[in-house]
Amino acid sequence: MMRPIVVSGDTLKFDAMFGNRQVTATAPARIVGKGHASIGGKKICIAGDEGKVQISADYVIPSGPTYANGKGTITIAALNSDQLANEVTSGQALIIDGTQFEALFTPTVPAISPGVPPRPDPAFPSPSKGAGQFIATQSFAKARSS
Fold it and tell me: What is the pLDDT of residues 110-128, one digit of tens each?
């Protein structure tokens, strides 16, 4: 199946839950393309560009006692095989709008449960797994996953 090629500036959408943590991005979630070619004046995204995505986020633990916001970073841990078009002449696989990729939330400031004494997130600083997807802004140029 032919899918749109992801270009610089395309939006990323993440599932809200990363394990038991409810995560909310605090900055625009976008990818920056470093490919040689461009589509509509925007550079195409190639394999490896996903590794540079770092989105600031707040988090809470919605179950159990109420936790005050913690902070952390969302990254893309791995692309799904249907998100790469490997049959290209440039040598580097293109990123395409496929299913969901694996995301990772790494807390940097623990969520705190108020009380006496206050209790930090018991899993801090361990990361949590989640998922996300690309929202392609262009549909003209498409490629097929391998």
Answer: 999 887 888 899 999 999 9
Based on its alpha-carbon atoms, the radius of gyration of the chain, rounded to whole angstroms, reads 17
SS (H, E, C) the chain: CEEEECECCCEEEECCEECCEEEEECCCCECCCCCCCEECCEEECECCHHHHCEEEEEEECCCCCCCECEEEEEEEEECCHHHEECCCCCCCCEEECCCCEEEEEEEEECCEECCCCCEECCCCCCCEEEEEEEECCCCCCEEECC
Separation CA 71–CA 124 (nearest Å): 11
Distance of CA 100 to the CA centre of its chain: 9
Give the number of C-alpha atoms closer than 13 A to the C-alpha of residue 69, restricted to the C-beta side.
9
Question: Residue 125, preceding bond cis, omega within 30 degrees?
Answer: yes
| Regions of the chain with pLDDT less than 50 | none
Residues 7-20 have pLDDT tens digits of: 999 999 999 999 99
Residue pair 53/27 in contact by the 8 Å Cβ criterion: no
The amino acid present at 80, given as its one-letter code, is N
